[in-house]
Design a protein that fits this description.
It holds the Pfam family Mur_ligase_C. Helices cover about 35% and strands about 25% of the residues. It is of the alpha/beta class. Strand 18 and strand 19 (about 325-330) form a beta hairpin.
Length: about 450
């Protein structure tokens, strides 16, 4: 069967492409403006990707067109699919019908931490010898790719609340029907899709309704919004993590790199690992709890996380020119920004040779560009010594929002000027964290080159 994917460069759709290829189908795709790591992953898999959305890409007609949720009416390829009467499906529908059916689905949902927690969970199951399948919106160093069919009944999926397709406005995750469900957290996001937090909570409750009574829901015990969702009706046993939940982590080091893990009050082990921050502590607890539901002991899960290498674009070290460490991070919501920077700050305070923390931020998401989080954004950078903000195309005044930060903010609407400003400021020992949920105009390579060019004489 020939499967053609519209929007193949998205993190989810690239994973669908790998799964379709693994299922024995011929896979092609169309997209515009691809960037790593998904563009690299598709190229490595030998999947043909055509630039743009020319209807000619669909001639001769494929057996099925899988349409990504970024595709809209008016897109020439979409219009051709409809006019020609081609067989089509959304990515989540294709996944449910061709991969997830009859498998034990472990789904990870929440506003933050889905990719990291999904990667942790898949890594734990793989380490334990369970050979899981998975589809994750990122590439974990331990897994090597974002999607895999696996060899067992277990399948880990990052369960996104974003809408499914232009013809299916339900959240993606309602298609997955998990037996094990992680609910990490819940805040307002995706202002282009949801009117308010209540609309998102309604979708989360739809997800809760799909989990069987023989399954398990693993829920953040400190999240009041998730508690409200569960209180609306839940027919599945729930298990909490964090707060007064059954699973708890006690930091034994300020940066969170040593944790004492407890289950139902009993110490089940000590985790020594490379990740920092309270958000990663919560992610680890959720992943261990889900793994235990399918038979992995806490001791084995802790052992697996000890060697967990992390996920691309989640505090990924891109280089250290002249003693300046440059990280790439996906944080794009005030809560995620706060957690990431506080984790870095704790690690820096434990290192006597650490310099300043420089945060370089692109408000790229629709929610950010609209200014939905503008009033809480400046405070989320409190742990940074200096903030460099790319303010092109915003519906709000960045300088006004960050006014109380004074000289610690540099705001530029020209990318090259922003790179130069960061390079002029950075010194040996500093940590530069580039934060964006997109390609950020290739800033990582430009910044590394600019820092390298400033080599001390």
């Amino acid at each position: 069967m020939h499967v053609h994917i519209l929007g193949i460069g998205g993190t989810f759709m690239a994973g669908v492409a790998l799964l379709a290829r693994a299922a024995g189908h011929r896979v092609t795709g169309s997209d515009a403006g691809l960037y790593p790591p998904m563009s690299t992953q598709l190229a490595d898999a030998g999947i043909q990707v055509m630039e743009g959305y020319d209807p000619a890409h669909l001639q001769p007609a494929p057996d099925q067109v899988v349409i990504g949720n970024a595709m809209t009416r008016g897109n020439p390829a979409v219009e051709y699919v409809l006019d020609a009467g081609l067989r089509y499906a959304s990515g989540p529908q294709w996944l449910a019908e061709n991969v997830l059916e009859s498998r034990w689905v472990l789904a990870v949902a929440g506003t933050h931490g889905k990719t990291t927690t999904s990667s942790m969970l898949a890594h734990i199951l793989q380490y334990a010898g369970l050979a899981p399948g998975y589809l994750i919106g990122g590439i974990a160093a331990d897994l090597g790719q974002s999607a895999c069919m696996g060899e067992s009944d277990f399948f880990v999926v990052e369960a996104d609340e974003y809408d499914t397709a232009f013809f299916d406005k339900r959240s993606k995750f309602v298609h997955y029907r998990p037996r094990t469900l992680i609910l990490n957290n819940l805040e307002f996001d995706h202002a282009d899709i949801f009117d308010d937090l209540e609309a998102i909570k309604r979708q989360f409750h739809h997800l809760v309704r799909t989990v069987p009574s023989t399954g398990q829901i693993i829920c953040n015990a400190e999240d009041a919004e998730l508690a409200d969702v569960i209180e609306r009706g839940c027919w599945t046993p729930t298990l909490g993590f964090g707060g007064d939940g059954a699973w708890q982590a006690e930091p034994l080091a300020a940066d969170g790199r040593r944790l004492r893990i407890r289950l139902a009050g009993e110490i089940v082990g000590e985790l020594c690992w490379s990740l920092t921050g309270a958000h990663n502590q919560a992610n680890a607890l959720a992943a261990m709890a889900a793994a235990r539901h399918v038979g992995v002991t806490p001791a084995v899960a802790i052992e697996a996380l000890t060697v967990f290498k992390g996920v691309k674009r989640r505090m990924e070290l891109r280089g250290s020119p002249n003693g300046i460490r440059v990280f790439d991070d996906f944080a794009h919501h005030p809560t995620a920004i706060t957690s990431t920077l506080e984790g870095v700050r704790a690690a820096a305070e434990a290192d006597s040779e650490a310099g300043r923390i420089l945060a370089v931020f692109e408000p790229r998401s629709n929610t950010m560009r609209r200014g939905v989080h503008a009033q809480t954004l400046a405070a989320s950078f409190a742990a940074a010594d200096q903030v460099f903000l790319y303010d092109a195309g915003l519906d709000w005044d960045a300088r006004a929002v960050f006014a109380d930060r004074g000289h610690t903010l540099v705001s530029e609407d020209d990318l090259d000027a922003l790179v130069e400003a960061v390079a002029d400021s950075a010194q040996a020992g500093d940590t530069v964290i580039v934060m964006s949920n997109g390609g950020f105009g290739g800033i990582h390579g430009k910044l590394l080159a600019a820092l390298e060019a400033r080599a001390p004489s």
